[in-house]
Structure formats: C-alpha cells, structure tokens
Amino acid sequence: MSSYCDYAIGDPLHGPYHDREYGFPINDEAVLFERLIFEINQAGLSWALILRKQDGFRAAYHGFDVDTVAAYDEADVARLLADERIVRNRLKVNAGIHNARVIQAMRESHGGFAGWIANHHPKRKPDWVKLFKKTFKFTGGEITGEFLMSIGYLPGAHRDDCPVQAEIAKHDPPWRSAPAGFWTG
Fold this sequence. Notes:
Endonuclease III, domain 1, single chain, 185 residues, mainly alpha
C-alpha cells in the first residue's frame, strides 16, 4: 500500500506540506480551524487542489479567524459561493460557518478547540468519528481521520522510515502519549 510519503517527498506542491505540516502537533485555534476547513473541502476532491487553493481559502475566510467566520451571514455565503479561489459548495461553506460557531462555544466549555480535542484524547478513530459527527457538520470518517492525523492525534501520517516522522517525534505528538498497545488493541 502506498503512502503519502511515497509521492510527497520532493514534490513541489505536496512536499512542503508533507515536510513541515502534516502530522505536526497544532494548538493554534485558527490553524486548527483552517485544517478542518481544508479537510472538509477536500472531500470528493484531490488534496492537490486544496494545496493549490490554500491562499485563496485564507483570504476568503479572513485568515480563518473563528469569530469572523462565525459571524458570516447570507451575504458572506453568497460571496464565498462566487469566489473562484476556493471550493464553491454550499454544504461545505455552511458547514464551515456552523463549525466556527461550535468552536466558539468550545472556548467556554474547554478553553477552545485545542482544549476540546485534548480533553477527548486518547480515542481510536471510530470513537473520534462518532464524536466529530455528533459535534460538527460535514465530518465523516475520512475527514475526521485525516484531520486528526494531520494534527498529531492519530498515528499514520508518515511511514516509520520517513525522515519527517523522526522530526515529528521531537514535537511529541499526542498520539504517542497513548498507553502501550492502545493503537493495536
């Protein structure tokens, strides 16, 4: 079975994401929200498309400021649906706005999105999927799994022999703190 590492290393589009972002722990709310929006928008499309549209997404979604996106109204939805720099899908746009509002509420209950995720760690992927489906919109199994791998909460972002895996280990990703045998049991 091939891995992202097999074709991303050295690739001008995928390489920078693979080498510096994918699998590294994240705590910043805007970056977590960005990654969630990227994963939602990738559904049914290629990751290369999302990587090519990153800057457009960042501009269209006001730098992924949760409070700004949570305040979006119908005029903002229309603006996003007309913006060729992003994926123009009403369900995905509406999910992003809804999810920003959910993340705002997490500040009260868990100190923020990062706190909410940390509070539920460790979980195996099926349990994370159930939790995300209950909490957010447009977060199925693949979206949830890729999101959590990309931020260091699930193992599998890189092959064990990938040089980036050793670099990520220096940042102590949360998945490594699970009890022995947790991921195989």
